[in-house]
Amino acid sequence: MERDGFISYSHARDRELAQALQRGLHQLARPWTRRQVISVFRDTTSLSANHDLWSSILGELQRSRYFIYLASPEAAASRWVQKELRFWLDHRSPDRILIAVGSGAVHWDPAAGDFDWSRTTALPRMLEGVFRAEPLWVDLVEVRRSRKYSLRQAEFRSAVAALAAPLHGRGKDELDSEDLQQRRIALRLLRGAVTVLSLLLVTSLAAGGYAWQKRDEALDRARVSASQALAAHSMELADADPRKAAQFALYAEETEPTSESARALARAVDANSSVARHLLGGLGAAADYTGSGGAAATEVAVSGDGSTLAYFSDLGGGPEQGRGVHIYDIRKGRAMKAIKAQWALGGGALELSADGRILMLESAYNRIQIWDVRRGKLLRTITASAGEDLAQVYLRLHAYAFSADGRWIGATYHTPGEKETQYLSVWNVRTGERVDHRQAPGNLRLSFTTDSRLLRVWDTSRGALSTWNPKTRQRKSGGRLPDIPTEARPITFAGSGDTALLGSTAREKAELWNLSTGKRLASATGSLEQAVLPADGSGSVVAAQGRQVSVFDPKLRRLRTLGSFGWPVRSVAASDDGRWVAAGSGDGAVSLFSTDGAGFHRSLPNEERLKAGEFDADGGVAHRSGPKGTELWAVSEGASGFRRLGRIPRPVREQDTAIAATSDGSRVTVVDRGVFSSWDPRTGAQVGKEKAFEDYEPESGQGLRLFYLPDDVHVVTAWDSDVLVIDTRTWSVKQVLTEEGVLQPLLAMSGDRKSLAAVDWVEGDVHMWRWSDKGEFEEVMTGRGLASAIGISNAVVSHGGERLASVDADGRISLLDIRTGRVVLTSVVQEPGLENLVFSRDARTLAHAFTSGSRSGLELWDARNGEYLGQWALETSTPPTDAEEPALRLAPGSGSDVLTLDSGGTLLRRSLDIADWRAKLCRIVDDPLSKADHDRYLSDLTVDAPCRP
């Protein structure tokens, strides 16, 4: 069915305006006897459930006579809107583009005969030079601002009439008159029917209202049930298929936000914490596929500089579908034009030069293709032998190596008529010339050094090493290594060529060897068949064990898991610095990982190697004290980790001591066994005189706490049973906030330094104060009790003072809503042992740190209703030594981030914001559910694709 118009708009910005515009176009000049005269497409109302969104949208574009662009800066930047506009410009006349400006600016330059692009912000630049004359456009900026979307409003009616006129093929004034006439007819009929309907209305209204209410209740229940089912399936998939887990969690939250959907999002974030992008999903065709050797091949390659990823799979992406070898720009985070190449059945060589510009691909029949990646151009084909005449078992390169500079290729292969004889050749990539050729044994392994200076050749059957120098074209023997067991074992070289990893067999463990010395460096149980060694052979090892891709230290001890797949991993590749790792599985899935967190959790620099025991999570200050003074740091708001404040020439003891810093770090105040002093950490000079508070004794039951207030002049602390506000300029007590003997106070300060809580750590009573414009505290809550009151060991207040959380000696957490005074949570922590708590910036999520044996991590709660959201394990790259006691400290970061510092000195940043979890999951997997999954969970519901802009 032909449509009159297609509305293209930004879902994030103009969903409501687009809906109103569609409704207005359908209603204007509509005869009262007809439902509608014209048909205008808008995706969320007109699109049927379909797993291929673009194909559906493309079909609607092809059926539409006019393209209605709802202009805004967000729409101009939207990838979907740009695709829709590009199709129209390629297949339709620009004269049939109608523009409605919802936000931003549009200016036409009559002299230039084009838009004034220096002032136009609401249009994409692809429209530059498209129109021969000023196109039809209407201004809806004020309408959108006022949100008066009725045809009774003159401004909105005029704009709708202007857009509807070409769709009806009539003038604007004529159309407007027709609409008024139709309204008069309808009004007369309406008045005649009102009398009759009024008699029925009273009877039907009650029944209809009741039915409508029940309908809404049933729909709400259906959405909740669907969300819970999607969330449950997401949790089931988290370990086996993190990509699908993220997809189902996103749809659960989009269907209906529930505690279950929040828990599924948290679990999906944890399962995908190292994923930069899921590039291909696993395909069901894997179960029925029979290729070379009976298994489908998936191959990946990453350039040494980490700029480019290339990948293909036998299960999808062949040139016959127009996809070929996929190329992904890692730095820009976007797909490049695919290379229409044909690889060998069952996989084979796939390598990139260090700069990602040249691709080596093993194609069919022992041929090697060389591609220019940026231009997608085949440079040359190198024929190793007439492979089409070989039996299947000989029909492939048996070993290969591609130099980092993209100049040399080495490979071993068979030739027809000499099936028992194998040859080793080296080619000049730029000319295609064969520069070395010789008979070779059948058990060779090849590797170029990272600097491309040498080709290392290892005869594994005899333990013999040799090198070939591209510059001199000379071969040189490197001796024999008879003690290295290599029979039937997968072998991986380091870029330096001096180190090799031998995968495990039924009899042997996986082993790391130094080929220069013949010494075994490390061994590990479990298969490490697919692996990448660091370029210099001394850093972390990336390897696959079954369906998991993990990072190992040089002793082959597992540090952390990067990700999992639904099928065993077939191929692994990594950049030279180990930051970017790609892997492909047997069902065609391909994922890109970032070892520094990819945005879910990010490693922050900790050059001073500060550890958990040196960081005061309450005051946000880290200090390292020695006999001659104390070094001081504060948590940085950016990506630099800790910010050094300076040094003071005074040792600071651990007991009965507290340190606080001003917001800019220019002054620190220290209280040490009753003596208060202030310092300039940048110069080490003391500011003013120190003062001993002899009349007060610090509370010995809890650690001493000290906080600066918003004016960076006053500090607050608990002293004996009092809460004191002290002027650091004179050391005079400005306020005493509690009466003597009322509290045994444990203090907690909000992130904005304006809300102060004093919790009686014995009885659980809570007093709250708020810093006023008068420069003093005013009490906002008195004597509210916590349900958990058995020796409260820690309490925290959210950034804006909305909620308070505490943990007691028995590991019970209580959560108090300060505005209502209601305790919304009393729960026992799943992993006791630590007292650290922190809120997200929006006070929606609460995190608790735990350590248990060698494990450490975070427990999460929904701070609005107290629902438990699960755990995040914190696998660190620097585990504590046997002599160190595991510890973990938390601190609020910028936005809704939480910072974790462990006993090994690893500083990580993670987000606690549920909206941020959703946004980040959309960045790594934005494709919709398959039709089968959509029909199973959402067949009777209308649910937008969660990642559509």
Automatic annotation (TrEMBL):
Pfam families assigned: TIR_2
Gene3D superfamilies: Toll/interleukin-1 receptor homology (TIR) domain, YVTN repeat-like/Quinoprotein amine dehydrogenase
Keyword Metal-binding: no
KW Repeat (keyword) present: yes
Organism: Streptomyces globisporus
PROSITE patterns found in the cross-reference section: TIR (PS50104)
Record protein name field: TIR domain-containing protein
Start and end residues of each TIR domain: 1-124
Organism classification: Bacteria, Bacillati, Actinomycetota, Actinomycetes, Kitasatosporales
Keyword terms of this UniProt record: Repeat, WD repeat
Matching SMART domains: TIR, WD40
